[in-house]
Design goal:
Blueprint lengths: L20 E5 L18 H7 L5 H9 L10 E7 L1 E3 L4 E3 L9 H19 L5 E2 L4 E4 L11 H4 L17 H17 L2 H8 L7 E8 L15 E3 L3 H10 L3 E2 L10 E4 L4 H12 L5 E6 L6 E5 L5 E2 L9 E2 L2 H7 L2
Parallel strand pairs: 1-10, 1-11, 8-9, 8-10
Antiparallel strand pairs: 2-6, 2-7, 3-4, 5-6, 11-12, 13-14
Helix pairs in contact: 2-7, 3-5
Length: about 325
């Protein structure tokens, strides 16, 4: 019998270049399970970006301040909000609908600051018009939902709850009620209501966690620029020491990552870059029905071939992507 031929190890080509790729993420909503006792903490993109513990607060703080943050310090994010009363429940309004100014926020913070620092057993770390950040202290074990996840919904299902330590949610509700009473009689709210604006009638807690809890996706090791104006992405860029910009630079697409409220123009830019061989791959990450999905597009797969082979292949449009899941 002839001797067996040994398998030859294929050596990688030292001259081969890594694929030039860009990642576009499209955020989604949770697919709520009516049989579940509680919804998951964080939107699917928040869990994807930060890991299962979803430590939003320290990342937001990092992106909005110049503070040096202890990675082991558990931090809570507090936000002044409006709870809209319907016939049988309360709905949390999106904070962008409130138009809260820095001066109004400062004035609202003043009467409640002693309560916050007493119950949290710590001074405030940082605040601006939309956020108050404080070490979580005795509230560190509280399970919460971000404002982005909870707004526009009946808050009964989204209120903070106990995780492994009983009585913490009850303690938070007591503090929340005290703040609501103080704000109910505050002159700032009287002026807002007279001018037709929604009152600031409650406070929302969320994002409790540590920087040490952050678990970013592995591919972020290759990302050179993060394109987004969202507070969470600004903080994540700073955490990763990665350059960040609000607008996508068409001349710096390689190893880029984008998260925007208007992804269609970016897709057009990226598909053109594929056609022009400026990029080798475009990775599209989205969350249909709350589940992670990743699709890779190349110059070859950018066009849909008709069964009528004599017709020119049709370029995949944005409507194709979001409508049919191409």
């Amino acid at each position: 019998m002839p001797p067996k031929i040994k398998e030859m190890a294929i050596e990688p080509n030292p001259n081969s270049k890594p694929a030039r790729r860009f990642t576009l993420m499209i955020g989604g909503e949770d697919a709520l399970d009516p049989q579940a006792e509680q919804p998951p903490c964080g939107l699917p993109q928040e869990r994807f970006l930060l890991g299962k513990r979803v430590p939003i607060a320290p990342i937001l703080l990092l992106g909005q301040s110049d503070l040096v943050i202890d990675p082991q310090l558990s931090i809570a994010c507090l936000q002044p909000v409006h709870l809209h009363a319907t016939r049988d429940h309360l709905v949390l309004l999106n904070q962008t609908q409130l138009g809260l100014t820095q001066e109004e926020s400062n004035a609202l913070l003043k009467p409640i600051l002693p309560l916050l620092e007493e119950d949290f057993q710590s001074p405030l770390l940082f605040h601006n018009a939309s956020f108050y950040f404080i070490p979580a202290g005795p509230f560190a074990s509280l399970a919460t939902h971000s404002l982005e996840q909870s707004h526009g919904r009946n808050i009964d299902w989204w209120m903070p709850r106990d995780s492994h330590e009983e009585g913490i949610s009850k303690r938070w509700r007591k503090l929340q009620n005290e703040i609501q009473m103080l704000w109910h009689i505050d002159a700032i709210n009287q002026v807002r209501e007279q001018s037709g604006k929604s009152s600031i009638n409650s406070i929302w807690i969320s994002g409790i966690g540590k920087l040490a809890d952050v678990e970013v996706p592995n591919f972020f090791k290759e990302i050179k620029t993060i394109y987004s104006n969202k507070p969470l992405l600004k903080g994540l860029a700073k955490f990763l020491n990665t350059p960040q910009s609000a607008d996508v630079n068409p001349d710096q697409l390689e190893a880029g990552f984008a998260d925007t409220d208007d992804p269609e123009p970016i897709w057009e830019m990226l598909s053109t870059a594929l056609e022009n061989k400026q990029l080798d791959e475009v990775i599209l990450v989205d969350f249909p029905q709350g589940h992670f999905r990743e699709r890779t597009f190349t110059r070859k797969s950018l066009h849909q071939q008709s069964w009528m082979f004599w017709r020119k292949a049709k370029k995949i449009s944005w409507q194709d992507l979001i409508g049919t899941g191409a």
